[in-house]
# Entry
Amino acid sequence: MERFIDLSLSAIMLAGLYATMAYGLGLIYGVLRVVNLAHGGVIMAGAYLGWVLFERWGIDPYLALPLVIVASFGLGILMYRLLVRHLPRGPAGGPASLLLLFGTWLVLRNVAYLLFTGNDQSIRTSYSTASVPFLGTYVSVNRLAVLGVAVILPILLQLLLKKTYTGRAIRAVAQNADSCTLVGVDVERIYALTFGIGTALAGVAGLLSATIFSFNPGFGSGELLKSFVVVVLGGLGSILGVGLAAFILAVVEVFAILVLPSYLTSAVGFVMLVLVLVLRPGGLFGHRVLG
Amino acid sequence: MSEPLLQLDAIDVSYGDVQVLFGLSLEVREGEVVTLLGSNGAGKTTTLRAISGLRPPRAGEIRYRGRSLATIPAAARADLGISLVPEGRELWPQLTVRENLDLGAYGARARPHAARNLERVFAMFPRLAERSGQLAGSLSGGEQQMCAIGRALMSEPTLLMLDEPSLGLSPLLVDQVMNTISELHAGGMTILLVEQNLRKALQVAQRGTVIETGRVRLEGTSAELAANPEIRAAYLGI
Ligand SMILES: Nc1ncnc2c1ncn2[C@@H]1O[C@H](COP(=O)(O)OP(=O)(O)O)[C@@H](O)[C@H]1O
Ligand SMILES: [Mg+2]
# Structure
């Protein structure tokens, strides 16, 4: 029973993390029709930024959150202006944009090797090992904090998308860009902003991951693939779909530990991906775009 | 005579290598309803897209209140009072009716008056008020057309352009749309109306221009056009 509660809590926390990074990927795809293969690179960059801020400047990772958000948002804007803006969009532009964004990831990764070597790092705070009692077991304080951020951020984002003119414009651009231009929306600006928000979520996911897992410049590839699984499962429709899909993936992964040898558990997500693509190509929850 | 509100001066418009408009000229004066007529593929939609900035001309000039629009990006034209109800409505199907209307007031000039204009739109189309929480994609064709017109009105246009607003509507709804246009005109709005339904268009418009493969074929007052034997033969089937 204790083990069950333990695993459940792990699953919930992982789900929050997966949802955060997947939402960033899905938002960018939904609005720009570009698969951001550099997403994993930004996740890695977020982890290192948090680590540098903590190791060199002693800034607590949760206090560093705004800094990481601003920096990865800025990185996204830069990537958009320098690169993504010039890419062909949609199915026709697929290969070109995939290759260029994959190249961007390689650049980010190699810069990280140059700056930080390939050694494993992690962010170890004074409360990294602290835990509080919960339902007869103990929960890590840090994991609770990760979950808190991973729940609050998407909710804030959802409020932005639903309640503000800019957020509504983001959703509208995903559905019909010309109509947006006609009512006065600067569509290019919305694209840049959306790309920035998507990468900011990746950066946050990286920072949060760094407080739990160890990482090196290769970090982010598994995360990117998991983001794909979640987006395909949950669709681009709603934060709820993404959250549910992230939860399903996390639960399956975590509980697979009980029945599968450990070297197989990481394959679980991809088996799910293939199954969903074959059985329900529209995702488990339909494919409304940012409705 | 005062300067026209809108003036197209010999514009050429192309899609890639394919030229669609050839030296097209057109004028709309303040307070007028002008209709742009022509058979399918003549270039009516392209003309409206050129005016709204979605497909700027290769050559020639579009002037609005005497000023060239060449350097004004499409997204800035709503703030100048230019608004288009596009062919096929082009709503955001997965946003609610209310969200579609709200976004109509996105521009800096219109936004402060969004609440007032929303009331006006709802008064004009009570049906939209009833359906305000529904997804625009779930509306009937007529309701979608009302929503598209409502969205355009949310920007408080000076020049309202409508591209085949009666397309696919039942005769009853066509009349309703035409009445709406007359009402807006009576309220002082300047209107450029593209229609296939020539008879109806000439009833609400004061003047008309007939284009054929991207060139002006005929121009005149509605009465003149309605009496023109060529038009009667080609479009009115008389
Ligand atoms: N996006 C496009 N790409 C290429 N050709 C187009 C495009 N849109 C319209 N055309 C062509 O331009 C011509 C005029 O089209 P359009 O302006 O839509 O005519 P109308 O609205 O009068 O029916 C047609 O021959 C049409 O095939
Ligand atoms: Mg047309």
